[in-house]
Amino acid sequence: MDDYRFKMVTPENLMEPDTVVGYMGTIENGEVRPMSPQDFIRPILAVGLDEPVPLIVRQAFYFARNAMCYGYWYWPALRRLSTDLRPSSSEN
Fold first, then answer.
1. Mean pLDDT, to the nearest integer, of 18-28?
2. 66 within a domain of the structure (yes/no)
3. Domain that holds residue 35
4. Measured on CA atoms in the order 6, 8, 9, 10, is the torsion positive or negative?
5. N or C: which end of the chain has fewer CB within 10 A?
């Protein structure tokens, strides 16, 4: 990771959480514990679109939302999606 500043995926580390996620945790019953994949994706999956939104927009949204879930294993994917999806100041 040092030379590239991101996880270099290998068959051995594919299913290990990204190093960034290792610094995250959650509180359960007053105790801090490491974040599980379920903890990580729950807030991402909590966001959705209503039926009146055009299908093509919903398809793009859910593709991006689902891809963000993989940030647990590869943080740059989430980082890239979150910056690409954020409105720029010129759009306001």
1. 91
2. yes
3. 30-86
4. negative
5. C
